[in-house]
Design goal:
Layout: H1 2-17, E1 25-28, H2 30-36, H3 38-75, H4 81-106, H5 111-137, E2 142-145, E3 151-155, H6 162-175
Parallel strand pairs: 1-2
Antiparallel strand pairs: 2-3
Length: 176
């Protein structure tokens, strides 16, 4: 749906400006660029190595929990009520430790997210700057990224309607 919307936007822009000048539109595949860029490959290898290390730690913790649970399950009928409660508490604490570790490493704002930003942002900034430079040098009016969701990577400022829309809104808002 977004792809179709982006295509319609380009066609609309091209059609509305056809009376004035020819609009030059280009696209890039940032995914292909990142796959071929040595800096990006190195950064991805570092990230992958961390993921493997953390996943191994997580697996060990889960195996430890499973081993303790299996022992508890075999012996729960012969354990005293107090010992059973202690073991269940230990299992719960270990389970919580696993959840906390997973969130700390792989969660929404976890170490993986931070590390990806730290390693990939400089590379992405370089790619974005190169796209803008090529667009200006080759006189493109719009450049889209076709990787995944279509994103507008560059737009010639002469097509920016923001001020006009704000003026129209201000006029309507002021008169109402």
């Amino acid at each position: 749906m977004r792809t179709l919307s982006a295509v319609w936007i380009v066609l609309l822009l091209a059609g509305s400006t056809a009376a004035y000048a020819q609009v030059k539109v280009g696209f890039v595949s940032s995914e292909a660029i990142m796959k071929q860029l040595p800096d990006a490959q190195d950064a991805q290898k570092q990230i992958d190595a961390l993921v493997v290390e953390w996943q191994n730690e997580l697996n060990k913790m889960q195996q430890e929990w499973q081993k303790k649970y299996d022992e508890y399950d075999k012996r729960k009928l012969i354990l005293t009520e107090q010992r059973r409660a202690e073991t269940e508490r230990d299992l719960h604490d270990l389970d919580q430790k696993i959840v906390d570790f997973r969130n700390k490493k792989f969660g929404q704002n976890g170490e993986l997210f931070v590390k990806q930003g730290e390693l990939m942002k400089p590379v992405q900034d370089r790619v974005f700057k190169a796209i803008q430079d090529v667009a200006v040098e080759e006189t493109y009016d719009y450049v889209f990224d076709k990787s995944g969701e279509i994103l507008l990577m560059y737009a010639n400022v002469k097509y920016d309607l923001t001020k006009k829309v704000l003026e129209k809104l201000t006029i309507k808002t002021g008169s109402n």
